[in-house]
Write a structure and sequence with these properties.
The complex is a heterotrimer of chains A (351), B (120) and C (412).
Chain A (H helix, E strand, L loop, with lengths): L8 H8 L9 E5 L4 E6 L2 E5 L2 E3 L5 H7 L7 E11 L1 H4 L20 E3 L5 E3 L4 E3 L9 H14 L8 E12 L10 E3 L8 E5 L9 H16 L22 H10 L6 E3 L4 E2 H8 L8 H8 L12 H12 L18 E2 L17
Parallel strand pairs in A: 4-11
Antiparallel strand pairs in A: 1-2, 2-3, 5-7, 5-8, 5-9, 6-7, 10-11, 12-13
Chain B lengths: L1 E5 L8 E7 L2 E6 L4 H12 L2 E2 L2 E7 L5 E6 L3 E2 L3 H9 L2 E3 L7 E3 L9 E3 L7
Parallel strand pairs in B: 5-8
Antiparallel strand pairs in B: 1-2, 2-3, 4-7, 5-6, 6-10, 9-10
Chain C lengths: L1 E8 L3 H12 L5 E4 L19 H4 L5 H14 L4 E2 L3 E5 L4 E6 L3 E12 L3 E3 L2 H4 L9 E3 H9 L3 E2 L3 E5 L3 H12 L3 E7 L8 H8 L6 E3 L1 E7 L6 E6 L12 E4 L2 E4 L3 E3 L2 H5 L24 E3 L10 H21 L7 E5 L3 E5 L2 E2 L5 E7 L3 E10 L2 E11 L5 E5 L10 E6 L1
Parallel strand pairs in C: 1-2, 1-6, 2-3, 6-18, 8-16, 10-11, 10-16, 11-12, 19-26
Antiparallel strand pairs in C: 4-5, 5-6, 7-17, 13-14, 14-15, 19-21, 20-22, 22-25, 23-24, 23-26
The chains are: A alpha+beta (351), B alpha+beta (120), C alpha/beta (412).
Amino acid sequence: MVPVPLTSPFSLRTILTNGIDRKVTAIERYVANNCYLVHTPAGAFRTKWVINCAGAFASDISEMHGYPNYPVRDFKGEYFVLDKKAGAFLKTPVYHAPNDRGGFSTHATPTVDGNVLVGPDSYITEEWEDYKCTKDHLDGLIRDGSKMFEQMRREFSIRNFAGIRWKRVDEEGNVLDSKLESDQQHNPNTVNLVGIESPGVTCALPLARRAVARLVAVEKPEVNEKFDPVRPALKRFYDMTREEQAEAIAADPEYGEIVCRCETVTRAEIRRAIHNPLGVHTVTGIKNRTRATMGRCQGGYCETRITEMIEQELGIKPTEVRYSHADSYMFTGPVRSGNAQDETTEGSVNA
Amino acid sequence: MLREFTCIMCPQGCDISVEFEGATITSITGNKCAKGEAYVTQEIENPMRNIATSALVDGGDLPLASVRLTDVIPKDRIFDVMAEIRTVELSAPVHEGDIAIHDVLGLGVDVIVTKDVDAA
Amino acid sequence: MKHVDAVIIGGGPAGLAAAIELRKKGIDDILILEREKKPSGILRQCIHDGFGLTRFGETLSGPKYAARFVREAEALQIPCLTDTTVLEVTPDRHVYASSSEHGMMEFEAGAIVLAMGCRERTRGAIRIPGTRPAGVYTAGVAQAYINLKNKMVGRKVVILGSGDIGMIMARRMTLEGAEVLGVFEVQPYASGLPRNVEQCLNDYNIPLSLSHTVTDIRGTDRLESVVISAFDEHMQPIPGTEKEYECDTLILSVGLIPENELTWMAGAEKDPGTSGAAVDENYQTTVPGIFAAGNVLHVHDLLDFVSLEAEALADGAARFLKEGSLPACNLAVRGNELVSGLTPSRISGEDDVTVSFRVRRPLRNCTIELVQGDTVVKRRRMPKALPAEMIQIKLKASDLSQTDDLEVKVTC
């Protein structure tokens, strides 16, 4: 199991993210064998049950395993992340009273780590995976956010990001409810979830229970008595007392080396994050697991160390290190290399 | 042609204007001393530069040692000298002052190390 | 827990100079705490020349300048714990630090010297819109990768910010075969030193575009392009001036911020003009026995001044250790609207003092007057003054009165 606290949306994303590129291109039903063949560029996977939780692509997958291609639209929201110093001024989420459509505009939310999130706003984007931030919307967040949170000061800005909620819509573009369905008669052994959007993270566990209940109703599996749902929380060095910190270092000296100074993340924690069971090896993957690079210097001190640790722990070359996405190379090659070959070709990246 | 310089010979940083045709200077104004005049004259006729860069180190606790030239070279030879420096491979331990390349490209300057690098 | 007379946080140029001077002033029990593997601080990666002209009469690379201090500290056998990070400083001068080798350590300090230097301003801090691809680096980080880690960060480069580090990196990356498309600066003047504009940009025909900045970042996995817009004198984008530059690397050189988290933890007050601690003429913060010098106090452009400042601090700290306290500094130091980053903020009028500040914008033929009451204590005329160049003015105790606040007036 991946040892991450479940109270942070960033760590939940960590659990759900698998770095391997397995985009589903088709789903075939084999009636005789009572199974499905799920086709990806990495090969075909044989399975009994297919559960569609594909988010942005849920409509496409929905159609692939027999359900309608429910239309969805991208409702995008941009965010400000504010320094923990701003968090000292906000102990409770602040929301505007609902507007006449029942919606909330920009709100301010203290996080469990002590930062403040201002946002999201909400607007439709026609580009498919559009996660960029825009000047107009950032300005809007400043304008609306400042009205309810005085400490939205320039000096507290750490980062901006954007997310998308895919909402089901009808022909006129009116928002419809999300779908959780299971048509055992026409599409046996499937569960279909489309248009799961805000508050999707909060509802993830109850939604999962409902989806699994459909499977259980058909398969009637035996309860696994040996499954222990309780996993001891892994304490962050940052959250330990000085005594606990001393003990942690005594047990594993790499707890004594601080790699991320802003968020007090140790070498031991980064090392563990690099060797995560999902096989995610990006800088962003480490960030989501440990909070390293999330502080006010945004990796100015620790990023050089983290990339070096990724190379050393995994035995890979600098040109193989990735920042977050598949082609997000960080280095084009060595500055100096040890042979007569042109160093721009030796182990370099073809951009 | 007219070119404006900020002189770098002392902290005063005089703004010096130079009129010239090709490599021939016709007038210099704005300098407060002869060093400024000498500086801009050199800049127009034969600009000279030093280079600060890195050389590869084998077996050191760092992969690179910083290097520079013992004296300035003509500006238009910078990239030729860089190409030579790219071929250097030093062995740790390396010390400040070690000569990485002697009389590089016959220009009468050495490439020297400016940082100690211990053996790993 | 261990008692140490003088704990120095940071083994860069300020910390090293302070340590050596403290020893020369008779303080034996000194400990430097340094988070890197070796002391020298940021100078390890500043391989270019230009350091030491004032102090040593010759121009040295960063590592070479630092080496002189490191060797002297070693010769004086001043203890230095490396790979050690300070986690907390308390107002009663307890310091918590940890390392793999020694575990969690607690020190009770007679005096603390804060010499942590600064960090770089980030993309997030200046709210550049766009995507979040790989390929966006602050200049110091790019410098560390290239000069220390032997990793090249990109091939086609746009540099935002005409700070010294940005210009130095323009040259550095060009020497290593990258194509630097230009340096863009939102202000109408360069924020770094003129000699760097000359030797880093003009030398390599790298254009410097003033009153321009990045207004969009594009590319999903790796940077693909940036959009640059022209800005007017009110620092607002001029519509219709957007131009897209294809590039794989964006280097940000948009300012340095003194790294003072430990300073605030210790309860020291901030000087709103410098982003650093408010200090008196002894470089003592508002917490007795806690001192600050170097970039952590205010960002310097001349390394030689850092060493001098740290040595002046050491004189004050040594006196504090010997006498138990320092005389009160009851006179405020204030600057007019053309003055920024003024230190110290308080003086006694009984001692020599060095006043440091910058002008807020480039000025020609300006007059600087240091005034107490009706008396002009010192006057200096400068044919040219740039925000990029810190101005330091030394005052003698004999020049100063002990009754009036000190005003720094720049007129033009």
